[in-house]
Amino acid sequence: MAQPIPTNIITGFLGVGKTTAIQHLLAQKPAEERWAILVNEFGEVGIDGSLMAGSSSENQGVFIREVPGGCMCCTAGLPMQIALNMLLARAKPQRLLIEPTGLGHPKEVLASLAAPHYRELIDLRVTLTLVDARQVRRGDLLEHQTFREQLAVSDVIVASKSDLYQAEDLPALQDFLATSEALQGRTLYPVEHGALELDWLTPPTRLDLTGLPPAPAGTGGEDAEPTDPELPEEGYLCMVNQGEGFHSRGWVFSHSWVFDVEKLLAVVNDINADRAKGVFITNRGVAAFNKSGDVLTQFELDECLDSRMECIGRSEQALSNLESALLDCVIAR
Question: Of 4, 27, 53, 264, which alpha carbon lies 20 to 30 A from 213's?
Fold first, then answer.
């Protein structure tokens, strides 16, 4: 590639609205540009790629690759490098967006980008860290290592979901940033509904990749195309993961299955989890659900390859009965 690819990392803790923010950026993409998006998810069932691809396609110059299972920045960075190599070769993009899982360590993602192989390919621009100021005011995450690391690597801090704030929430975030010498001087943008501005992506990062210990090279010989898990005779598959004090449970259902959308809505409303996302083939088309805490968003997509759902929470027991509830929503197989 003749010119290094402008690259942005968009990070933030679980449920802060990263996927919605990237969807908003995609809506602003110049029609003539090709963009690539590398998404890491904590759960074993990838959902974000389906949410983004449901309204954007390769015909519109958007190429998406997922690294499920929270493994973008583990195993010496090899899962990320393999996925990134394939994505760049396929898309030949003019912009690259990387979304690490909300429970991942962005410094390890940056270490992978510091590998010599990428130094002539990647032009790292600002890293945007999304923060929910309500969590800061309550003190939910202030001592969480991943949250503090996400702030440490930021060039721009986005106070997401600001339309839901109480009067004291944003000042609490501002005070927190002002009292941290390491975070002083960061640009702070309050944002509603993930409405990032395209020009926020342009400035160069303040980070020095050459100062990071590079991840071991893994850029040759591993570029086999990953395959989706094969569904058993039952027509669905459940996969689990855990780490950082959280548990995930995800399902993939056969593309021939049709769900009752009203029953699904009731099930999702009752889920007790920090994060729940789903894409379903229903009796009213393709329905997507995105729930963070008690806030549920439902919207329609143009298409999807199958139905799938992923839930992440601190309590494994809270997710244990969800499978039977989802199966009760099936009206055709």
Answer: 4
Q: Look up the CATH number of domain 5-211.
A: 3.40.50.300
d(CA 128, CA 11): 6
The SS3 assignment for 193 reads coil
pTM score of the predicted model: 0.84
Q: How far apart are CA 215 and CA 78, in angstroms?
A: 8
Beta bridge partners of 98: 9, 38
Q: How many residues does the chain have?
A: 333
- Would you state the structure tokens that stand for residue 256, as one six-digit string? 């021939």
DSSP secondary structure, 194-240, as one string? T---GGGG-SBPS--GGGSPPPPP--SS--PPP-PPPP-TTSEEEEE
**What are the Cα distances from residue 181, in Å, to 175, 177, 203, 209?**
12, 8, 22, 21
Displacement of CA 284 from its chain's centroid (Å): 27
Give 104 or 178, the one with higher predicted confidence. Answer: 178
Own/partner pairs for 175-180, CB < 8 Å, 24+ apart?
A: 176/136, 176/142, 180/151
pLDDT confidence band for 202 (50 / 70 / 90): very high
Please answer whether residues 151 and 129 qualify as being in contact, where contact means their C-beta atoms are separated by less than 8 angstroms. Answer: yes
The owner of tokens 């942005």 is: 8
> Which pLDDT belongs to residue 25?
95
Sign of the C-alpha dihedral, residues 114, 80, 124, 179? negative
Task: Report the pLDDT value the prediction gives residue 275, as an integer from 0 to 100.
Answer: 87
- pLDDT digits over 132-189, tens only? 999 999 887 888 888 999 999 999 999 999 999 999 999 999 999 999 988 988 999 9
Residue 14: the pLDDT is 87
pLDDT exceeds cutoff 90 at 71: no
Residue entry with tokens 């055709």: 332
- Ramachandran sector of residue 124 (left: φ over 0; alpha: ψ -120 to 50; beta: rest): beta
- Domain positions in the chain are 5-211, 236-332
Q: Which CATH architecture has domain 236-332?
A: 2-Layer Sandwich (3.30)
